[in-house]
Amino acid sequence: xxxxxxxxxxxxxxxxxxxxxxxxxxxxxxxxxxxxxxxxxxxxxxxxxxxxxxxxxxxxxxxxxxxxxxxxxxxxxxxxxxxxxxxxxxxxxxxxxxxxxxxxxxxxxxxxxxxxxxxxxxxxxxxxxxxxxxxxxxxxxxxxxxxxxxxxxxxxx
Length: 157
Description:
Blueprint: H1 2-14, H2 17-30, E1 37-38, E2 49-51, E3 58-60, E4 91-93, E5 100-102, E6 133-135, E7 142-144
Antiparallel strand pairs: 1-3, 2-3, 4-5, 6-7
């Protein structure tokens, strides 16, 4: 009787271990190498599953030296909706259209939108490179004009 009790106790102790070993084996088999398609970080050996192109498909990629898992960012010239989509972290209007594009920051790390050149038609100062939008006479539409005078003010020509 004591022998049967010990045997039963031994079997009960082994039961929870078997599923754990099976799960560990399964997890090791399911780890994917860099470059393989994935859906979640846990699927990858690097624990890093991100998009690496315009395609929504995710792939296993290496982490950075600081153990970060960074998604692919759009290079300059690609259409964007926000700064975080771009490698340069700068998404701005870059021509007469309404689309915004990834573009390089200035040497002072500013993200400046495209502005209209001098003599172009305008409605607001902020539309012009010169930041100066005025009517040249009472009947003409407003145009971007260079700032003038000693203090570079927005004066009519």
